[in-house]
Design brief:
Layout: E1 5-11, E2 32-36, E3 42-45, H1 51-60, E4 67-71, E5 95-101, H2 108-114, E6 131-137, E7 140-144, E8 147-153, E9 161-167, E10 170-175, E11 190-191, H3 193-201, E12 207-211, H4 216-219, H5 230-240, E13 244-248, H6 256-272, E14 278-281, E15 287-290, E16 306-307, E17 317-321, H7 325-335, E18 341-345, H8 348-358, E19 362-366, E20 368-369, E21 372-373, H9 374-382, H10 387-390, E22 393-398, E23 413-416, H11 421-436, H12 448-457, H13 467-480, E24 484-490, E25 494-501, E26 507-509, H14 515-521, E27 525-527, H15 540-543, E28 550-557, E29 563-571, H16 579-597, H17 599-604
Parallel strand pairs: 3-4, 4-5, 5-6, 10-12, 11-16, 12-13, 13-14, 17-18, 17-19, 19-22, 22-23
Antiparallel strand pairs: 1-2, 1-15, 2-3, 7-8, 8-9, 9-10, 20-21, 24-25, 24-29, 25-26, 27-28, 28-29
Helix pairs in contact: 3-5, 7-11, 13-16
Length: 605
């Protein structure tokens, strides 16, 4: 058994593979890292194009362990594109455990299978020869071999996990892709509370492998892209007392010479700051060996920093309405993170009283509390005149999965008993972070069952594009001078586009749909700048592609009064439309309604 962690980089590029004459030394493959633990356990982190070379080496090694663990940070293509080409997955003698973040409605297995559909790849996921087990993760801890692996959400447009691997007093952290919560290179000692929390994730680590795609200057014009500048990474690692910082996820346009200059500048900055931290720029094929250092020989390298005034978890509060004291205490323990204020209530009356007086960020209530329905308790608070209660989020504790629809109520998570403190803590932290974000999913309309039945009776979902609808969206886009116009129909878990001008997609999840807010309110929704709207500012489609900054949605009704979807306009920059233009777009929405009324007859003929 070795006494060291061995880390080998097989892919260090971001976004797109870039092999060529100017990327020879640092390499052009996308993210893939091999970690061999002191006990021999094989761990891969991410499966970009670098996985191809790693797979060939493993297949050729007669001493290979024939069992491995693949940790996927997130499912953007540059982090999984090597998966169908990773040779050990085709070998029946290999066994693989594959881990990744639990998504919004789609499992890790489904996501990986998607890129192996026959349209894209000749071999399906089911045809792989190895024994494969998939594990959907949230924040928490798990054990792999003799290692403790801690997962932590990163700040990226899609759900992304960082991984902290610990064994025998050695620690390796992988954090890719991640963007600062608040960073100004001109004030490096002012640290956002959530960035401080991020730094704590790699406290005292021997090696931190961190996304550092941009220079500080580049980052000024690339905020919201989901990646970090080098100066921020260096500051976070110094704050955490890290031994070695490895820059990775190099920008696809970065040449070897440009990376040399960035590395030299970063080392000069560390020298000027009096820091003993070592910094490297990760390169394809590079090996780093981490050996233990006794605690008495470790040196603290933490700079002085000032706290920023940005809101953080410590300003959140949780009200727990659970009768069983043991369960209530378990939830209180799980919620006790980052200075969160916790209040416990043993019955429905006390829950209602404390909610109205304390205005919690999150209400955790059991399905049946002192004879009252937990959903009804929440509904009564939502109906209160106090707007602070309407901003409160809900978690439900139950003995089984819900067997009835929760119309009019958005439940962030059902906690199904029994569960551990660690499981509850991961979900509560995720809920509180979501509460702190300016992004709200739309509530479910009260007439949801009838609305969906009406939509499905039209038999229009998943039908081909038709000129009669495309003509309307072309006119709407031209009238408003926007690049995107859609006829969007909101289904149970998705919004589907009967007509789509300016976007190369046919549907998105309902979770991301601005149109779902229109369907709920049944009124036009005009957002001049999404970054100024508390419902939308932190939405993945605002901070990530297609970077929506303007939205105007007009409800589309059926003759029976059901709101089926919208005619909507989208732009990637803020704008304001005249009243005359808005009236004309609303007239077009009425024409869409007329076309929908004849849709079933048209399809039938």
């Amino acid at each position: 058994m070795s006494s060291a962690f061995k880390v080998q980089f097989w892919g260090t590029r971001g976004s797109l593979p870039r092999p060529g004459r100017k990327t020879v030394r640092y390499g052009g493959n996308t993210s893939c890292i091999q970690v061999t633990a002191p006990d021999g356990t094989l761990v891969m982190i991410d499966c970009g194009s670098g996985a191809f070379d790693l797979g060939r080496v493993l297949r050729a090694d007669p001493n290979a362990p024939m069992q491995g663990h693949l940790l996927i940070s997130h499912t953007h293509w540059d982090h999984i594109q090597g998966f169908p080409f990773f040779a050990p997955l085709f070998d029946k003698d290999w066994r693989w455990n594959i881990y990744g973040p639990a998504g919004l409605g789609e499992s890790l297995r489904d996501t990986l299978a998607g890129q192996m559909q026959y349209s894209y790849f000749p071999v399906t996921l089911n045809d792989l020869g190895a024994k494969i087990h998939f594990h959907d993760l949230m924040e928490g801890e798990l054990t792999i071999g003799g290692m403790t692996v801690t997962t932590r959400y990163l700040n990226h447009p899609v759900l992304t996990l960082g991984y902290r691997l610990e064994m025998d007093d050695m620690t390796i952290v992988y954090a890719c892709d991640h963007e600062p919560h608040g960073w100004d290179a001109s004030e490096p000692d002012v640290i956002h509370d959530l960035d401080r929390r991020h730094s704590e994730f790699f406290e005292g680590a021997d090696l931190v492998i961190h996304d550092s795609q941009f220079t500080d200057e580049e980052y000024r014009t690339r905020k919201g892209w989901g990646h970090s500048p080098v100066g921020y990474v260096s500051k976070m690692c110094q704050l955490a007392g890290v031994r070695i910082m490895a820059l990775t996820h190099h920008d696809m346009s970065r040449t070897d010479d440009a990376l040399d200059e960035i590395l030299l500048a970063a080392r000069e900055d560390l020298k000027s700051a009096g820091s003993a931290m070592e910094i490297i720029a990760a390169a394809d094929g590079q090996m780093v060996e981490i050996t233990p250092i006794p605690h008495q020989q470790r040196t603290s390298d933490k700079p002085h920093v000032s706290a920023s005034v940005a809101p953080a978890m410590k300003k959140s509060s949780v009200l727990i309405g659970v009768a069983d004291q043991k369960m209530s205490n378990l939830l209180a323990e799980a919620a006790s993170v980052g200075g969160v204020q916790i209040t416990q209530a043993p019955d429905a009356a006390t829950t209602l009283q404390l909610a109205r007086s304390s205005h919690p960020s999150l209400l955790i209530v059991e399905e049946h509390l002192s004879g009252k329905d937990g959903l009804d308790i929440y509904k009564s608070l939502q109906a209160d005149a106090d707007p602070r209660l309407r901003e409160m989020s809900l978690m439900m504790v139950a003995d089984r999965e819900p067997s009835r629809p929760t119309e009019g109520v958005t439940v962030m998570k059902w906690l199904i008993q029994p569960f551990s403190v660690q499981y509850a803590r991961a979900h509560i932290q995720a809920a509180l972070l979501r509460c702190a974000c300016r992004w709200l999913s739309a509530p479910i309309p009260l007439d949801e069952a009838r609305r969906l039945a009406t939509l499905h009776e039209l038999e229009i979902l998943d039908t081909p594009f038709e000129e009669r609808f495309d003509r309307i969206t072309r006119i709407a886009a031209a009238l408003a001078e926007v690049p995107i116009a859609l006829v969007s129909l909101v289904d149970l878990e998705r919004q589907w586009f009967k007509s789509c001008q300016g976007l190369d997609v046919s549907e998105t999840s309902r979770e991301l749909a601005f149109c779902a807010h229109v369907v709920y309110s049944r009124k036009p929704m005009i957002v001049k700048d999404t970054l100024l709207d508390d419902r939308l500012a932190d939405s993945p489609v605002v901070v990530g592609g297609p970077r929506i900054r303007f939205y105007a949605g007009f409800p589309i009704f059926h003759d029976n009064g059901s709101c089926l979807g919208t005619l909507c306009l989208i732009d990637t920059k803020p704008r304001e439309l005249s009243e005359g233009t808005l009236r004309l777009i609303e007239d077009l929405a009425r024409i869409v309604e007329e076309e929908l009324q004849t849709a079933r007859e048209t399809i039938a003929t």
